[in-house]
Amino acid sequence: MQEKTCSHLWEMINVQSGFIITENCFRCNKTSTYFSFEERPPLEEYRDGEHFWNIMESAQSIRFDLKCSNCDKIIQYGELAGLMMCTGCDEKCEITKLMKKLEKERTWVYVAFGFFPVTERKQISTEKISILEEYFNQRRKSSRSKIKIVSSEMIGNIATCYAELIKDVGMLSLAPPEKE
Amino acid sequence: MKLQEIIEKLSLKALTNLEDKDVSGVFISDMLSDVMSSAQAGNIWLTVQTHKNIVSAANLIDISAVLVTYDKKVPDDTIELANRFHVIILSSPLSSFQLASKLVEAGIK
Questions:
Q1: Which residues neighbour B73 within 8 Å (Cβ) at sequence distance 6 or greater?
Q2: How many domains does chain B have?
């Protein structure tokens, strides 16, 4: 089917497990996040040029692409760090305002995050966010509610945002009980 | 199958408000990323996880209900968030394996 006339039906492909690593430079206080495909997350601090990176958090997550099963078009989501559900923590935030408006229609607002620092990493485009929203709504086509995905650029003040990315924190710290 | 029917058959405890929902299958995992990639709308999700991010993951996929196994204590903030977003959380003292067996017996595939 030609892409121009295709009613895309998206499926998740190339799902890869890994870690979202958050690190902080103790010299300049810059925060950086990236996706690691290593089997185990890095633990030790290291020097990279002028930066001395400390690992702040490593959380298991996935990286994936979307493919249209009708026209074979593939959209890559390498720049997506994760999704976060808006809980309306900041009344002044534009996303909270949108959430309050849409919740009457049972439409839940999620925020798509790229990696930090935003000025140095390619961020997810509006077009890709729309396709991601279309994909998740197609997956929940039988439901009585919908989701809306917006860019993290809409967040008024990230420091006052209490929502969390959907990721698996601390799963590797699970350990069997010690033998007596 | 209706969620209320499953609640009665498996003697599940509702920790949140209940809504009339259909259950179309079972998903078992303790990882939110698995839910994002592999769960299907209408599934009942069996997990030991209780932190409030289970609400975000369940809501994204439109899970019918989150069923917390081994009677794990679910924090109040998780229950509060679930009620706000119409996510149903249930609880049972049984393991995922025992519950999965009972769900199959009840007719869920």
A1: B50
A2: 1
Structural domain boundaries, residue B95: 3-106
Is residue B108 pLDDT above 70, yes or no?
yes
Contacts of B24 in chain A (CB under 8 A): 142
DSSP B36-87: HHH--TTEEEEES--STHHHHHHHHHT-SEEEE-TTPPPPHHHHHHHHHTT-
Chain B residues touching A143 at Cβ < 8 A:
41-42, 62
User: Does the beta-carbon distance from A108 to B85 stay under 8 Å?
Assistant: yes
We report the CATH number of the domain holding residue B99 as 3.40.1390.20
Q: pLDDT digit string (tens) for B22-81?
A: 999 999 999 999 999 999 999 999 999 999 999 999 999 999 999 999 999 999 999 999
Give the separation between CA B65 and CA B42, rounded to whole angstroms.
Answer: 8
User: In B, what residues contact A, Cβ < 8 A?
Assistant: 24, 30-33, 36-37, 40-42, 52-53, 55-57, 59-62, 81, 84-86
Could you list the beta-strand ranges (E) of A26-50.
Answer: 31-36, 46-48
pLDDT number for residue A176: 56
B66: tokens are 């989150």
pLDDT digits (tens, 9 = 90+) for A96-113: 999 999 999 999 999 999
Q: Does A164 touch chain B (CB under 8 A)?
A: yes
pLDDT at A158: 81
- Run of H or E including B109: none
